[in-house]
Amino acid sequence: MPPASGATDSGQVLATHVLSSVTADLDGDGANEVVAVVADPEEPAFLRVEAWSVGGGTWASLGATVVRHWDAAARELRTAHLGAETAGLLVLRNAGRTRVLVVIGRPYDDGATPGACCLGLASVRLVGERLSLEPMRDDLGSAESVMVVDLEADGRDELVITMPIPEGDGPWRNAFTLLRQVSDGYAAEPIDLGDGIAYLNFAADTDGLPGDELLFMSEDNGELIRAAASDAGMRIDRAAMTDIFEPRSGGWIAGAADGRLIFVTERGIVTARWPVDGLTGVTETPSAGPFPSVWIVGSGADARLIEVVGLDAAMGHELGMRVYTLDLELELALDAPPEVDQLWQAMQEVQSGVVEMPDIYPQLGPIPGGLPDGRPAFLGLARVVAINADGSSEVHEAAQMAGGQVMGLAGPGRSWLVRGTGWFPGDATAWLGGIGFDAGQIAASTVAVVPVDSVLAPAEGDPDVTLDGATVLNTAEGPRVFAATGGFRATVAAEPGTAVLTTIGDRANVEEIASGQTTIDIDLAGRRDASARDTAGILLIGPLGIARSVTWDVTILREPPALSAASSFELFEGHATLSGEVAVGTSITVDGQPVEPAADGRFEVEIPASPWPRDVLVVARDPIGQEVARNIEVVGIVDLRALPWLPIVIAATIGAGIVLFLRTPIPRSDERLVPEGDGRLEEIDG
Question: Poorest-confidence range of 14-18, 276-280, 354-358, 567-571?
Fold first, then answer.
């Protein structure tokens, strides 16, 4: 038997090794139960169907029964885990009652056309408190898929079987069969589309008359084909696709709402009306890129189209969401939160060869059946977009989710969200061909239940991560992590089964927590003799699919810190100014006193100074303890050595001469000394 259900703080993992799961009201009490097809991990030749219901806040098994058992030879490799037998689940309505149908087949792939032979049907019933499986039809031939439709809008669903069949030496051709519910089982009716190869795309009301129509596209994309129920039998309508998209480029039908067909094309989103008298009213809108990712939420005139952009990094768009009305008017444009964008980028970097891990694809898609209050809603990119009764749209934050798909809501008051595996969320199509599961993927496939409140009102808080060998500093740019050569270690504590996605720059790795915690080595690439800076992060995807993340700005310090410093002074001041710059996170001491650098690493400090130069010791210490010391010469008032002595000497000489000249008396012209007599020498008598 599969392992026992695992309870967590906010939900339960009901089973692993899950091939398909749905929600349905088995006992008629108005609350959905959960039903899944499970491959037995201990008995590889068994497929079982199991159901669960909730009571007192705890989900418990209603029992399991064998879907298919076969004799597996000891050396046979293709067991249930590897797809030798497969089964899908469908939910059918019949006169107000709900039935869960198990579709069983044996997958094959001839290299050109995948499918499954020996198609069988069985019904899951709850008899008292015991789950039972009642075979209904066996060996219905080959099938690639089985789809649930309601062609007459009478509440009695039909099944459409797509069967690939060979045609001589040419390519295989799809044949389509309609199975109608009758009192003793099903009545088969072929759907004749004429010659040529066609592919079933969608089922919806497109002609304005009650009931679904089946929409096909021809192999060359040149023709749209519609099959609709009428009093005279199946009515087949045809329309050229040239007005919708270029056949050589192709496209597909995303769905329909309020009588409008929604196409995804190379040009973007295209809508058209197709009443009985012909295809009309073609409208298109440019999208972020060709073949956009589009979902339809709700029904009628208030339905919305939701386009998620940025899934293709090559297109150069940021991850986000656009909400359109059916008239293709842009109503909302929302950017994805950073942690969601990080998850998406990391998912693209993870090696595709890792198969032992759960799906890490971010949650994107409508919630089947809508929110607990009945409003149609889309869940994705940590947002929930709901359509109100008055036709307006409303956006709220939601938990970031990844892996698996939302299968619907269950339990009293539809208060539990069910997440499981399957090709598509919901219960309308079972795909049997080309499953491609291997043992690792089957083991990692789960079905889980999460309280709706945990998704729509997520709890805040970072993952439980402890760093060893790293220093965390709060900077103006946010928290930064510093470590020495060799990096640091991060120990992550979480529930067993949690996927741990580690991103370092553009590299990513994924592993699973097996026993409550795991330790991860984090180091940056680059030269061993040069420091490096990059982004690193850890994303946790719990067993219930709720993701949390933490991101760091990491610097690996492989060399001593860089330090620039110089001194300056103002004339006749008693101090000098010492200024410089260091890397963010580096501490500084000047003359043994700590100095606080600015947010950008610049620093400036005034220190006492005299006319005689002296050395001031400046020490820079990085966050991991590496130091650099420099002696900076400081002088104040005036630095005699720095004066321009030659001009000073010349100026002083000139100045002294001027002073001496000015201080020497100069006789006036009218006061000259005139000797007495005639100026001649005379003899003096003795």
Answer: 354-358
pLDDT level of residue 136 (50, 70, 90 thresholds): confident
Contact 20, 88 (CB under 8 A): yes
Contact 414, 331 (CB under 8 A): no
At 256 the pLDDT is: 92
CA distance 222 to 239: 9
More confident residue, 177 or 571: 177
* Separation of CA 583 from chain center: 33
pLDDT tens per residue across span 413-470? 999 999 986 544 455 888 876 544 555 566 668 899 999 999 988 877 778 999 999 9
Which residue do the tokens 């210490």 mark? 621
Q: Closest Cα partner for 207 from 157, 263, 258, 150?
A: 258
Convert the pLDDT of each residue in 352-410 to its tens digit.
Answer: 444 444 467 788 999 999 999 999 999 999 999 999 999 999 999 999 888 778 999 99
Torsions phi, psi for 646 (to 5 deg): -60, -50
Cα–Cα dist 146/571, whole Å: 93
Count CA within 13 A, CB hemisphere, residue 494: 30
Q: How far apart are CA 318 and CA 369, in angstroms?
A: 30
Cα torsion through 501, 503, 507, 512, rounded to 10: -20
Give the DSSP H or E segment for 408: strand 405-410
Edge-first strand listing for the sheet containing 86-94: 86-94, 97-109, 114-127, 130-137
Rounded CA separation 434/348 (Å) = 23
Q: How far is CA 361 from CA 218, 269, 282, 403, 409, in A?
A: 31, 24, 34, 5, 21
* SS3 assignment, position 340: helix
Q: Residue 136: enclosing H or E segment and its boundaries?
A: strand 130-137
Which of 489, 553, 562 is CA-nearest to residue 519?
Answer: 489
Q: Give the alpha-carbon dihedral of 260, 265, 269, 271, to 10 degrees.
A: -20
Q: Diameter of the chain by CA atoms?
A: 184
Strand, coil or helix: what is 126?
Answer: strand
DSSP result, 616-630:
EEEEEE-TTS-EEEE
3-state SS, residue 169: coil
51, two tokens = 């159901």
User: Where does residue 270 fall: left (phi above 0), alpha (psi -120 to 50 degrees), or beta otherwise?
Assistant: beta
DSSP designation for 346: H
H helix or E strand, kind and range, residue 522: strand 517-522
Cα–Cα distance measured from residue 252 to residue 268, given in angstroms and rounded to the nearest whole number: 11
578 contacts 607 by C-beta, under 8 angstroms: yes
d(CA 549, CA 540): 6
Say which amino acid occupies 510.
V
Torsion (CA) 75, 80, 84, 86 in degrees, nearest 10:
170
Q: Could you tell me if 382 and 442 are in contact, meaning their C-beta atoms sit under 8 angstroms apart? A: no
Q: Which of 157, 144, 146 is nearest to 24 (CA)?
A: 157
What pLDDT does residue 389 have?
A: 92
Q: What global pTM score does this model have?
A: 0.81
**CA contacts within 13 A on the Cβ side of 309:** 20
- Interatomic CA distance for residues 283 and 351, integer angstroms: 40
Structure tokens at 345: 């980028």
